[in-house]
Amino acid sequence: MNKLRTSLVTATAGILVAGLAACDRPAERDRTSATTPPVTSQAPASTPAAPSAPNADRTVGQTVDDAGITAKVKMALAAEKEVSATHINVDTVQGTVTLSGRVADQSEIARALEVARRVDGVKSVDSKLSVGS
Question: pTM of the entire structure?
Answer without folding.
Answer: 0.59
